[in-house]
Design brief:
alpha+beta; Immunoglobulin-like; about 25% helix; four-stranded antiparallel β-sheet; single chain; 14 strands; rod-shaped; about 30% strand
Length: about 250
């Protein structure tokens, strides 16, 4: 969602560059009004905003730190600076008088920061609440191999997959694989069923079930030889079967 609006990104880039220029100017002013000991010093700036969804209230601030300790903060409501240590008083006096810069920080906190906070929250909620069902298939390397129930493309990774016989979950002859990530941020998983001792006439008693957490619908695949994808070749003709070739 955020990446679709080029104007939003252009504005954010411009505002970030302005923030960098303001930070540079205030750092130079800060250095002029504070006594410094020898050695390296670290000046930190935090631009913070938060919103309460229940009360719909918004708060934000700009704060500077010196070597990890709070130094001075900007009060958005009064558009003035608050000293957090006595040494910040001379800095406050100069910065309070720069109305243009103070208006800029107020707009950053109440405008840009608030806007992007809401955009991020909206995007985050839609992403976290995402539910994608997988494509599922039955695979078998050859006629003596276990039948693999394979589901891929699901999200999130809170899912379960198992084999049943006559509608009841079974554990004997079943081997579960790990849930693995795909390159598109979705997931995949497999569950094998040893069919070496299952008579052909009993295959239709078995099925594989996939369940994604939070989704009422389930995917059920009957153990049917006609739908299994495999690498098997027709023994008599030497030609590949019409089933899709799958490499393990």
């Amino acid at each position: 969602m955020i990446g679709e609006n080029r104007k939003d990104w252009d504005r954010l880039i411009w505002e970030c560059r302005e923030c960098k220029d303001m930070f540079k100017a205030e750092t130079e002013s800060y250095n002029q009004h504070t006594s410094k000991t020898e050695g390296a010093h670290i000046i930190q700036q935090i631009i913070h905003c938060e919103q309460d969804d229940e009360t719909n209230t918004f708060e934000g601030y700009v704060r500077y730190g010196n070597n990890g300790e709070d130094f001075i903060a900007f009060d958005v409501k009064t558009e003035t600076w608050i000293t957090l240590v006595p040494e910040a008083e001379t800095v406050k006096q100069e910065w309070d008088g720069n109305e243009v810069r103070n208006k800029f920080w107020k707009n950053i906190v109440t405008g840009l920061c608030s806007t992007w906070l809401n955009k991020s929250l909206t995007y985050g909620k839609s992403y976290l609440n995402r539910k994608d069902l997988p494509s599922a298939s039955l695979l078998q390397e050859n006629s003596s191999s276990p039948v693999t129930c394979h589901a891929t493309g699901f999200y999130p990774d809170r899912a379960d997959m198992f084999w049943r016989r006559d509608g009841e979950q079974i554990h004997e002859g079943v081997k579960h694989g790990d849930i693995l990530p795909n390159q598109d941020e979705s997931f995949q998983m497999i569950v094998d069923l040893d069919v070496s001792s299952v008579p052909s006439e009993d295959w239709m008693r078995y099925d594989c079930v996939f369940q994604l957490s939070g989704v009422p619908n389930v995917i059920i695949m009957k153990l049917d030889k006609d739908v299994i994808k495999s690498n098997r070749r027709k023994a008599l003709t030497g030609n590949e079967s019409n089933e899709k070739k799958v490499h393990f």
